[in-house]
Amino acid sequence: MKRTIVAACFMPVCLSAVILATGIPSSTSEPATWSSKAAASYLDGRMVWWMGWKVAARDHGTFCVSCHTVVPYAMARPALRASLAEKAPSLPERQLLDDVVKRVRMWKEVEPAYPDETRGFPKSAESLGTESVLNAVILVGYDAPAGNLGPDARQALENMWGKQLTTGDARGAWPWLEFHNSPWEGNSQYYGATLAAIAAGSATSDYQLSQEVQDHMELLREYLIRERASQTLIDRVMLLWASTKVPGLLSLPEQKTIETEALSKQQADGGFSLSSFVGDWKRHDGTPLETRSDGYATGIVSFVLEQTGMKSDQPELRQALGWLRTNQDKAEGRWLAYSLNKQRDLSSDVGRFMSDAATAFAVLALQNAN
């Protein structure tokens, strides 16, 4: 399986020491630096760990495609290729792609990631709905930069559309895993639908123009518009990203409203805290949510704003990128982020889940800075 990935280049932007009227730091000093090599090492290492972790193992010798570690890795790792002078995907990338392709090709044979028999109803349906979207996001994401849509990506999209709900209040969306864990597995059906829109909207134009796909897309579009007002800000940021791929999801004023609300959460250090994007969500253990700026919120907000066409010299985005450049852990290559669900040891493997996603989106934001 030969795949070509085109990664974006980046331009360093400085974090300033002068305080703007907005209260966000600004600067004319030398740009801070970050290490793409260290970020790649961290991401590859975490992918290798995940693939070998017994808890992640699934049938037919495959592993679970997780929202926190695997999907962000698949989105971000190709973006580092150019700056590292790599000619092909890394070994962990190839292993990931082989795993996803195997499950896509064996779609009617593989067990759900969380079967009803062991996890209770309706986990089988939720597992298949979730996985169908994540597989499509990964495979379309690898094909799209080269302007191709290979047979495995097409099959992943077909599997995805086959799990789309066509009746009920959630028609247009997908059954989605509910483990009461934010931000991806707790009231996260809308998040899943935005990912489906990103996957389908990234496919080639000839694929999108087929009547069958347009019918599915219309159902999806109706759902995303219908349910928009009740979503948390982080899911509306995801909708903003999807709107750059799928016409008709947001008008320009609606896009601007989400941008403005997201930017209103920027902290004095230039970063963002995920806790300010999740409404009244509470941790299960009763501990307070972390309010410090984190790599996940700062990375994803910065990256999505770039997707809307915002230039990196705009003050708010410049400061967010500056925060990312100065807050990479130089020893490990990662950016820290904190669990919304309980207080965790950030040095533990499970405690790194949020940092896995944070590092991926920090990389995407920095590599796509224009």
Task: Give a description of the structure.
The protein has helices spanning 36-52, 70-76, 91-105, 116-119, 123-143, 151-162, 189-202, 205-208, 211-226, 233-243, 252-263, 295-307, 315-326, 353-367, and strands spanning 18-19, 25-26. By secondary structure, the protein is an all-alpha fold. Mean pLDDT is 92; it is low at 1-30. The chain has a two-stranded antiparallel ribbon with strand order 1-2.
Strand order of the largest sheet: 1-2
- The ordered H/E elements are EEHHHHHHHHHHHHHH
What number is the mean pLDDT? 92
Q: How would you sum up the global shape?
A: globular
Strand residues, percent: under 5%
> Structural class, please?
mainly alpha
Tally of DSSP helical segments: 14
Q: Report the end-to-end length measured between terminal Cα atoms.
A: 32 Å
Low-confidence stretches: 1-30
Topology, number of strands? 2
Supply Rg: 20 Å
- Largest beta-sheet details: 2 strands, antiparallel
Helix fraction bin: 40-55%
Short account of what is shown:
The chain is built from 14 helices and 2 strands; from the N terminus they run ββαααααααααααααα. Strands 1-2 form a two-stranded antiparallel sheet.
What is the element layout, followed by pairings?
Blueprint: E1 18-19, E2 25-26, H1 36-52, H2 70-76, H3 91-105, H4 116-119, H5 123-143, H6 151-162, H7 189-202, H8 205-208, H9 211-226, H10 233-243, H11 252-263, H12 295-307, H13 315-326, H14 353-367
Antiparallel strand pairs: 1-2
Helix pairs in contact: 1-3, 1-14, 2-14, 3-5, 5-6, 5-7, 7-9, 7-10, 10-11, 10-12, 12-13, 12-14
